Hints:
Elements: H1 11-17, H2 28-38, H3 45-51, H4 54-61, H5 63-73, H6 104-109, H7 112-135
Helix pairs in contact: 4-5
Amino acid sequence: NKQTIVPPSGVQALMRALPFSRVQGFGGKLGKTLTAQFGDRVLTLGDLLRNVSEGELTALFGSETTQWMLQTARGIPSEPVKDRSLPLSIGCSKTFRQSNMLLVPQHTQDGTILKWLRELAEELKGRAATDLAANGRVPHQ
């Protein structure tokens, strides 16, 4: 799930070197404003802490957002980590290696592509049914 566990002793060093654009909440309008206002002075969270005063940030973003930004840059979370036990999506796939790759003209005519599409659709249908029974969820687009 692309999460990294960092021991408390390493949090500040990690956060100092982290580009602010990689941190949730620092994208969009806030990130664009930081870039427009401070340019190369603020590329990482460490740069934010070193190169910009709290007063400058407060003037731009207000007190509440500034405090959130500074706490985040220091590695102090504003929310507890939430456990997510259920996946957000259901899928299935097939890898076609060189020896069994699909050739569109040949395999369209002999039904191989339709065979694999049916097989994958059945697998997906089964996974969705299992999830419905276990979690009461129905897939949607």
